[in-house]
Each structure stands twice: as C-alpha cells, then as structure tokens.
Amino acid sequence: MNKSALIQRWQDITATLKPQVRLIAVSKQTTNDHVATLLEAGQRDFAEARPQNLRDRAMKFPQANWHMIGPLQKNKAKYVGKFACMWHSCCDIETAAAVAKHLAHDVLPTLVQVNISGEPQKQGVLPEALPLFLKQLEPIEGLKLVGLMGMAAKHSDPRDAFASLKACRDQIITEYPMLQELCMGMSNDWHVAIQEGATMIRIGSQIFDQR
Ligand SMILES: *Cc1c(COP(=O)(O)O)cnc(C)c1O
Predict the structure, then answer these.
(1) Cβ distance 208 to 30 under 8 Å?
(2) Which of 60, 79, 154, 174 fits 51 for a cystine, CB–CB 3.0-4.6 Å?
C-alpha cells in the first residue's frame, strides 16, 4: 500500500469520528514505515499487543503515544510500566502490582479488561468479579484507573457485548466516578461500539491491511 492510500484509509475513519471518540491505530501487524506515515499525517495514538514490540516502537517513535493492548505476563511488566502511555489489558492483580513497580512516570492510566465475550476462556475479569477486582487494585499505587476495555467474540452479536461493558461501567460509576473511558470496537465492529458508547476504538486491519 502506498502512502496516500494509507492516509486515505485513516482519514476515512477519522472523518466520521466525533471529538469525544479517540482512534487508536493498532500497529502490531504493520511496518515502521506505515507508522511513520500516519504519525506525519497527525495520528498520535498507537497500540501494540506484545510488550517487547511496544518497547521497540516506543523507543523508535517517542513522539507517539503507545498503548498496551495485549495479554501480559508478569516478567514483561517492566516494558509496560516504562513505555506505555496507557495499559488497556489489566485483569490480574499480581501483574498489575508488577507493572506498578516499574513506572517511568508517577501514574499510568489503566483500563480494566472485562471479559464480555461470554467465552469463559477469554482474557479479562468476568463482569460479576469486577467489583472485587477493583477493590483489590485500589491499594496498588501508580495505576490510575480511567475506564474499562472489552472485546466482542468473533461470531456473535457485538452489540450485546458492548452494551454489557457499558452496563458494567454504569453499575460501578457511582463508586468509581473516574471510570469514564470505554475502550471497545475494532475493525469489524467499531461502528456498533460507538453507538453503544465507546470513547476509544482500536483499529488495525482496516487501516493497515493489504487487501
Ligand atoms: C489486534 C487487536 C485489535 C485490532 O484488531 P483489528 O481487527 O485488526 O482492527 C484491537 N484490539 C486488540 C486487543 C487487538 O489485539
């Protein structure tokens, strides 16, 4: 894909977004050249799903904001603490404590990943476990909770999943008024996610894929 085709795809998405919805460009399957092109065009938020790739890209492109969106093991926590501008996949207390130990800044904005897919084997805190999980996170200094993240299952209606993430948020918002962000929606379902109240969408293939 040439530069102008890439920028066109990106603009086709950004042109439809209201200012309260932030586009995160998921660069996990693209090249440094494509990242550089979008940066030049004005995109600031990028995401990686593997901690070492996050580190590498954050070092190469320090002018961008690097979001961590993938599963994380404790022994890779330092990369997230040091290089992420936001951690989207917090769903385990021990890993959260490990990330907090390695923070490069005073605080790391953090989203709790909730398993809204209806598939028990998927990553994320189950909705019914969320209140206890938030209680357990509270004593961990440095993680600044700002919202929830969720992913719909591949072959079911994403609207139900996104509505249930919003319902989780609405249930706890009185106790946790800082949980304003709802990060949900990917290439195939971001229109629905926005209708259901997404404040951040994570798009990879619709921007970067060769088709
Ligand atoms: C890869 C990935 C995305 C982007 O998916 P696309 O379908 O390519 O837009 C979003 N969120 C997470 C957690 C991912 O791993």
Answers:
(1) yes
(2) 79
Ligand 1 centroid to Cα of residue 174, in Å, is: 30
pTM: 0.97
The single residue listed with the structure tokens 């990060």 is 183
* DSSP code of residue 75: G
CB distance 186 to ligand 1 below 6 Å: yes
Residue 88 CB–ligand 1 contact under 6 Å: no
Residue 182's pLDDT is what? 98
Residue range 120-153, pLDDT digits in tens: 889 999 999 999 999 999 999 999 999 999 999 9
User: How much is the mean pLDDT over the chain?
Assistant: 96
